[in-house]
Amino acid sequence: MTGLTSDHILQRMMALHPKIIDLTLDRVWRLLERLDHPERHLPPVIHIAGTNGKGSTQAMIRAGLEAEGKRVHAYTSPHLARFHERIRLAGELISEAALTELLDEVHAANGSDPITYFEITTCAAILAFARTPADYTLLEVGLGGRLDATNVIDAPRATVITPVALDHQQYLGETLEEIAGEKAGILKRGAPCIVGPQEDAGLEVIERRAERVGAPLFARGQHWHAFEERGRLVYQDETGLLDLPLPNLPGAYQIDNAGAALAVLRQLGCGEAAFEAAVTRADWPARMQRLSHGPLVEAAPNAQLWLDGGHNPAAGRALAAHLATLPPRPTYLVCGMLNTKDIVGYLRPFAGHVAHLTAVPVPDEAATLSPEDTATAARAAGLPASTASSALDAVEAIATEAPQARILLCGSLYLAGAILRENG
Fold first, then answer.
1. Domains and CATH numbers, the chain
2. CA-based R_g, the chain, Å
3. Which of 342, 323, 321, 351 is nearest to 407 (CA)?
């Protein structure tokens, strides 16, 4: 396939299965066998599931390990600007040449057999990780856990379940208990599981699964605690207390993500340098990220522009709570969402915290909700709303009306990715 780019091969992979999501492990096991089982040769794996906070928690764990000089692989999804973001080899994003060669090899091994895009690219990542020396592998679940393509590791070093909430019900179940059961499918015998804050119903499911498979559980509120005190992050478990700076990732909810990351680092025997780096050096774009340059910033030079990819009701509650802690400033939302989401549930927490919402389409996404439908949902959630044809048009209009506004672009990781691409 000389001359093809990774994008060309990824496009071919999209055509190997009629569905984007089809949860089963059969196709993954088949391909891994053809690749001589790379999943058996990975550096020690930390496997991370949950509805919200997976990426931030992974970023903090990675920052902590790298501060101790560890070489860390990391797998995450979806990507924001380029596919390469999904595969980090020993600390560096995979190069275009390496990615193209890898995808070509895995595509050839699979042939024309049905397999979803996520499944085949996950197998590619696992193959790359197995071939590159490192000290740890951080695997983020794509969807659910039990039947996710990443759930092929027999003996992870540790597992993590971040907060579980209602999302992707069409795939994971209609109740919190059903969804928690899918997330808890990553638990393995003997592998400690660090559990972030959970609703009681979800925690009970996770506890039953842990007891059934023989996985030691370390749950927030029982085995570890993390909270803010006098402008510092205090973490405490049976080993002792840590007094650390607040997380550099903004939002009160990052306290709990940091707690889970610190609990993992404790399990791995890390020291003070790792703990401090986890909360001060983590980088995770599109999570209350302040935009500093690009066409949107130029269109509203006196405004504050923030970007966040949260898209479910729990994310909406966390974002709204964070906005309430910021210095007073007129706040406007520019929102684009997919038609598979609980739009009213996501937007309702913002009522009373924002002056206005401008609904926009998610560029190049077939499943985008129309701006008109998003605006209708916003009004149902108690927000004044209008529409615009793009994020840039929306920001320009807001800047004309309220030059000093705080503008939050939100509602979808796909919208966030498009904005990051367009703004460098």
1. 6-280 (3.40.1190.10), 289-422 (3.90.190.20)
2. 21
3. 323
> What is the residue type of 202?
G
The position carrying tokens 């039947």 is 147
What's the whole-model pTM score?
0.90
User: First-to-last CA distance in the chain?
Assistant: 30
Structure tokens at 189: 């015998």
Tokens 């003996």, residue located: 155
Tell me the H-state helices in 348-390: 371-380
Distance between CA 411 and CA 362 in Å, rounded?
9
pLDDT digits (tens, 9 = 90+) for 201-246: 999 999 999 999 999 999 999 999 999 999 999 999 999 999 999 9
Q: Residue 143 contacts by C-beta under 8 Å, 6 or more apart in sequence?
A: 21, 23, 118, 168, 171, 172
Q: Which two tokens stand for residue 315?
A: 């994310």
Report whether the peptide linkage leading into residue 78 is cis, meaning its omega lies within 30 degrees of zero.
Answer: yes
Q: Which amino acid is located at 408 in the chain? A: L
201 secondary structure, DSSP code: H
The whole-angstrom separation of Cα 206 and Cα 179 is: 10
Q: Is the CB of residue 197 less than 8 Å from the CB of residue 176?
A: no
pLDDT tens digit string along 320-378?
999 998 999 999 999 999 998 899 999 999 999 999 999 999 999 989 999 999 999 99
Sheet holding 232-237, edge to edge: 224-229, 232-237, 240-245
Q: Which residues lie across from 104 on neighbouring strands?
A: none
Residue 199 contacts residue 166 (beta carbons within 8 Å): no
15's CB contacts (< 8 A; 6+ apart) are: none
Largest Cα span, the chain: 61
Helix or strand holding residue 357 (H, E): strand 356-359
360: Cβ contacts below 8 Å, ≥ 6 apart: 334, 335, 336, 371, 374, 387, 388, 389, 390, 391, 393, 394, 415
Eight-class DSSP state of 381: T
111: tokens are 């042939």
- From 318, 196, 202, select the one nearest 262 (Cα to Cα): 196
